[in-house]
Design brief:
Layout (H helix, E strand, L loop, with lengths): L1 H44 L7 H8 L7 H35 L11 H16 L4 H23 L8 H25 L1 H12 L7 H28 L3 H6 L4 H23 L5 H13 L3 H26 L7 H18 L7
Helix pairs in contact: 1-3, 1-12, 2-3, 3-8, 3-10, 3-11, 3-12, 4-5, 4-6, 4-7, 5-6, 5-10, 6-7, 8-10, 11-12, 11-13, 12-13
C-alpha cells in the first residue's frame, strides 16, 4: 500500500530531473557553440596587429588578395586558428576517453606516457637520423605516441585480471619515466636535438601551414569516429566490468577501440603542437558538470570545450605579451593549473 502511494511521486521526480538535465544539456550546448564561434573570430582578428570584423570578413572572401589584412588572415591567422581548433577538439575527446577508460579523474596524455613517447621519438629522429624538417619528425612523434599507448596497454594487461584502471595508470607512469630518461640521455649528447626538443615541447600552434593540418586530419577524423562508436560501451563500463559483461558488452574489444581512438587523437595533436597539457583534463570535468555521466554527451561537450580552450588560450597569449606572444602550451598551463586545483578542492567533486 505504501509503495503504491509513493511510486507516482518518485516517478514524477525522476521525470523532472530528466527534463532539467536535458534542458541543461541543450542550453549549455548552444552557449558553448556561440562561445566557440566568438573564439574563432577572435583568433583571426587579434594578434600583434588587430583587425576589425569588417577587415576579417573582407579578407576571408578574398583569398588571393595582396592587402596587408588579406595576407595576415590567410598566411598566418587562418592556419593557426584551424590547427588550434582541430588539436583542441582531439585533445578534449581524448581526455574524456582516458578518464572514462582508466576511471581516473586526473588521467591525461602525460600520465599514460603518450606525450613522453612522442617526445622521445622526435628527439630520436633528430639524434639518430638527422631529421630537422617539421614534416619529417612529426610522423615520428605520431609513431611514438602510438607505440607508447600499445606498450602501456600491453604492460597493463600482464596482470591476472587484465588491464584495469590501476594497472594502466601504473604502466603509464613507468613508461613516462622510461621515455623521459631516454630523451634526456639523447639531448645531452646532441645540441641540435636539444634545440628541436626545446621548441617542440613548449606546445605551439603557430608556424604550421594549412596543408600540414590537412595531413593530420584523416587520423583525427578516424579517432573521432572510433570515439563515437566507443561511447555506448564506455557508458556500460562506467558501471563496472562485471555489470558491463552482463549487459553483453565485450570489455576487451571496447577497451581496444578506446585505446585506438586515444592513440589517434592524442598522437596527431601532440605531433602537431607538442605536449599541450590540461585541455582534456579541464574540458572533461566541465563537460561532465553539464552533461552528467552519459559519455555520448560528455565526448561531444569535451571536444567543443577543448577547441574553445585552445583557441582562447592562444588569443590570450598573443594579447598579453604584445608585440611578442606566449605559446599556447604556456598559457594553458597558467590557466589550467588553477582551474584543476579548484576542481580537486571542490567539496563535491564530479565522480566518474
Amino acid at each position: 500500500m505504501i509503495e503504491a502511494l509513493s511510486a507516482p511521486p518518485r516517478e514524477g521526480k525522476r521525470r523532472q530531473v530528466a527534463v532539467q538535465r536535458a534542458h541543461r544539456r541543450w542550453t549549455g550546448l548552444l552557449i558553448l557553440i556561440a562561445t566557440l564561434l566568438l573564439a574563432l573570430l577572435a583568433s583571426v582578428a587579434f594578434g600583434s596587429k588587430s583587425l576589425t570584423p569588417g577587415e576579417v570578413w573582407s579578407a576571408l572572401g578574398n583569398p588571393g588578395g595582396t592587402a596587408e589584412a588579406d595576407v595576415i588572415v590567410h598566411a598566418l591567422r587562418l592556419p593557426r586558428t584551424v590547427l588550434a581548433l582541430v588539436a583542441g577538439v582531439a585533445l578534449g575527446v581524448a581526455g574524456a576517453l582516458m578518464q572514462g577508460h582508466t576511471r581516473n579523474p586526473i588521467a591525461d596524455p602525460v600520465i599514460l606516457g603518450l606525450s613522453a613517447g612522442a617526445g622521445m621519438w622526435v628527439v630520436g629522429a633528430v639524434f639518430l637520423l638527422g631529421i630537422t624538417d617539421l614534416y619529417g619528425y612529426v610522423w615520428f612523434a605520431f609513431l611514438g605516441a602510438a607505440m607508447a599507448a600499445l606498450l602501456v596497454h600491453f604492460v597493463g594487461s600482464l596482470t591476472r585480471g587484465g588491464a584495469t584502471p590501476v594497472t594502466l595508470a601504473l604502466a603509464g607512469a613507468a613508461s613516462h619515466a622510461l621515455f623521459t630518461a631516454i630523451t634526456a640521455g639523447m639531448v645531452i649528447f646532441d645540441r641540435q636535438a636539444l634545440d628541436t626538443y626545446r621548441f617542440w615541447t613548449v606546445g605551439a600552434v603557430n608556424g604550421r601551414p594549412l596543408d600540414f593540418t590537412a595531413q593530420l586530419l584523416p587520423f583525427i577524423v578516424l579517432g573521432l569516429l572510433l570515439a563515437a562508436y566507443n561511447a555506448p560501451g564506455l557508458n556500460a563500463l562506467s558501471l563496472g566490468e562485471d555489470v558491463a559483461r552482463t549487459l553483453g558488452v565485450r570489455v576487451g574489444a571496447t577497451r581496444t577501440v578506446g585505446m585506438a581512438a586515444i592513440t589517434l587523437l592524442t598522437g596527431a595533436a601532440v605531433a602537431a603542437c607538442g605536449p599541450i597539457g590540461f585541455v582534456g583534463l579541464v574540458a572533461t570535468h566541465i563537460a561532465r558538470h553539464f552533461t552528467g555521466p552519459d559519455y555520448r554527451w560528455v565526448l561531444a561537450y569535451a571536444g567543443l570545450l577543448g577547441g574553445t580552450l585552445v583557441l582562447v588560450a592562444d588569443v590570450l597569449g598573443r594579447v598579453v605579451a604584445r608585440p611578442g606572444e606566449l605559446q599556447v602550451g604556456i598559457m594553458l598551463a597558467l590557466i589550467g593549473a588553477p582551474v584543476f586545483i579548484q576542481l580537486v578542492r571542490r567539496r563535491k567533486p564530479v565522480r566518474l
